[in-house]
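Supplementary notes (optional reading)

For those who missed the lab, this is the record we used. Protein: non-specific serine/threonine protein kinase. Length: 433 residues.
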Amino acid sequence: MRPLFHSSSLCVFARPRLISRHLSYSQQLQASVLTVPTPRNGLHSNGATARISNVRVRTSQFHRTLRRGILANYLKERYYPISLGEVLNSRYQVITKLGFGASSTVWLCRDLHQDRHLILKVHVRSRRQLPEVQISRHLKALHENHVGEKYIRLVLDSFEIEGPHGVHPCILYPPAGVDILDYMQCLEGGSLPENLLRVTIRFMLIALDYLHGANVIHTDIQPGNILLGIEDDSILAEMEEEELNEPAPRKQLDDRTIFATRAMPLSSGEPVLADLGEARLAQGNQTGLIMPNLYRAPEVLLGMKWDNKVDIWAIGQTAWTLLESRHLFTKPDLESDADNARRFAEMISLLGPPPVEFLRRSEESLKFWDENGNWKCLADIPEQSITSRETQLDGDNKKLFLQFLRKALCWLPEERPSARELIMDEWLRGDDY
């Protein structure tokens, strides 16, 4: 039996029907842009396509920016001292720095074997095998003709390099543009228009149907992991040319050079779901702490067993964040029982009380509710509703969006629809069918 999202299928889920009947995803993105965004890190951008400015940042200014940008727990010995122009694995030539984090640095590079641009992630020193590589190999080995594969950023290649202080795993990806949060900085009010939100969530659900059908749970769905595709690769060649003509600022240390990051140009390709670094290859119920604090499903908060429905919960919260340009739950820290109590109080105010059936699945729930499901009032329940909190829509559109949200944010995981079922939701379908 051919899968529902088979790439050659003519059913309503086939790719051409995912976009507006009037405008492509790219055209809708371009039509929504009012101003060019300032990237959240890296150099300022200028011009209609947000290409790197030719104005060099002064060294003193760069040093101030660098001090603000370096991680609080930064230890240079953990990072590979990469140099621009360096060729890694006898194949990948480093062009310019795109970003950094607690576990890696990210670079634009050129594949010298196939004459193409790729994204290189160089991890901090580690002997640990990267789960993302294993997950990508698993997905590629399936050879499924599922359209959702196009909307997942898989690993193209991986290798290790020996640094002065240890071994560093390296991963190569296809190029992708800014994440959708950076794109939203272009928009009036900083939120995604409803028409674009519907299409974006549909793409993500098709990607999830592909993952879940392959027994992969993403566990880290959030706006920062939704990247816009690059339709025109010439913008990458232009970045390379800009680096040659106007090198990025840098700071020279005794044993390495620290480079400023360049922002990726604004692009308008179809979205892809990135970062399989926290994904799980598993069937059935799982255990353990997963998901970012702000997007964590209640069954995970209470230490219950969980399955791929945690991704559906995260899709619901992501849709809210993109539409409202703010998080559904306002307490980011979950370090103590008091923090968890405040989160549960918010959930109750917006979603109603959890079913007793759900609470009885975990002894942890007895910290916050009694055995009959009554709230112990460890935190005050805010006087609000999900209807009053939602401010971007009105009329039937608001009603249908909240209906969609309640499906995804159901306390009972088994009552949340699958990705395949949720894509049939009336609000998500809109006027496109």
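If you only remember one thing from this example: Residues 194-213 form the longest helix (20 residues).
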